[in-house]
Write a structure and sequence with these properties.
By secondary structure, the protein is an alpha/beta fold. Helices cover 15% and strands 34% of the residues. The strands form two sheets. An eight-stranded mixed beta sheet has the order 5-4-3-6-1-7-10-9, with helices on both faces. The two termini are 17 Å apart.
Length: 158
């Protein structure tokens, strides 16, 4: 079993503002979908509550400390170790879940947005010496990506 962290952040590791994404990048949303489709995804309660409904064609796991938490279409757990039987779990946030599972992760797929935004939620500090780039795709500003340049980088733990 392995954990893959899937996140997008700006130049300051910002990932959120008021429980939403601080940017709109349709091209990155498409990449997120490609990377998570037909795989189990794990999120925290706040990330769950930011979604209108479960993400389709994925098992939507929610890790929370709230003992009576329930939301239609989501599977609730209180201990991430309960997912040990799954082959690869895609961890999609938020900050507390990333912080909890970064030490357990074997892989990260990070969208680095070439901009800075205002917000209140950050990805935890990464010790880059523990990671190796295994793939990188650059998305400059273009007709298909008019908002912000970004790159999607896959890292594997060394």
């Amino acid at each position: 079993m392995s954990f893959t962290l899937v996140a997008a952040f700006d130049e300051n590791r910002l990932i959120g503002a008021n429980n939403n994404l601080p940017w709109y990048l349709p091209a990155d949303l498409k990449i997120f979908k490609q990377n998570t489709l037909n795989k189990p995804i794990l999120m925290g309660r706040k990330t769950c509550e930011s979604l209108k409904k479960p993400l389709p064609k994925r098992t939507n796991w929610v890790l929370t400390r709230q003992p009576d938490y329930h939301r239609e279409g989501f599977r609730i757990i209180h201990d991430w170790r309960l997912l040990l039987g799954d082959k690869e779990v895609m961890v999609i946030g938020g900050a507390k879940i990333f912080e909890l599972l970064l030490p357990q992760a074997d892989k990260m797929i990070i969208t680095h947005i070439n901009a800075t935004f205002s917000g209140d939620t950050y990805f935890p500090e990464i010790f880059w010496s523990e990671w190796q780039i295994t793939n990188q795709e650059v998305y400059p500003i273009s007709e298909n990506n008019p908002h912000h340049a970004f790159s999607v980088v896959t890292y594997h733990r060394i």
